[in-house]
Predict the 3D structure of the following.
Amino acid sequence: MVNSASVTVHHTNGVQNHRAITALIGLTGNFDRKGGNRVIPTSYYHRATGLQTREHEFKQPRPWEEMAPRIGQDPLFPVWCRMMDEAQATMLPFQIQSKEPYPIRAILGFGLNHRMWPASDFMKESLLKLDFFVDVELFHDGFRKACRHCPSACSSFERNELTIYPSRYAIWTEPVIPPLGQSRPDVDIIVDLAHRLKLQDPLLSQGTKPVWTGSLSLQTSELRTSRSIPRGRFCVIEQRRRTKNIEYRDFRRLPERWNLCPGC
């Protein structure tokens, strides 16, 4: 099983390749069944482990109804907005250019690579039209040299990192070397920025360590204690917390306005 979309979509024809693989699973009747691709709820960092996290509560403290419309919201990408708690990034350059339904004047990006967008030159042109654009990155390539501000991020050799593998093996890595030059861990940059902007966020205001242990940690004793075990450990899902299989949803029963299957 391919656990990450990166290996298929980061190519010229990558999106079509990934669509073909996904369609093949459905055409052969191997979706959500024993021996096929079972539906396993994702946990920290989109890993399909079935472990329970508080990541969603951390990323979205307010419901969508209390915020401005997402980029690419109805009627452009209704299925995406129903299934994903994110904006549709492919529409970002169009909204920067059109300023509809509201203008986007500033962006803070972490590892934002314009070459991942269709029509990469159009994305680059749109980003450079922003009043304020910051991209935190490991390397300063030609595009980032054009940015007004491009702070340096630490690599995984220079900072702590929580990694959870699909086998539910969790490990807290320790830095091998101190940060080079002016590079800093991503989380430190976000926490310091929250302090400077005086955001009313009780968790971010506490500092870097509470962000890791309080917001992204799993609601299991195994992970809370794994930080003291350098080699890591397997996290076991308690029987009462096991997630039931997600019921199959017939796409033909979705609203007609989505028009996913004309004539079905």
The chain has a mean pLDDT of 76. Residues 58 and 215 are 6 Å apart (CA to CA). The first strand starts at residue 106 and ends at 110. Residues 40-64+152-245 form one domain.
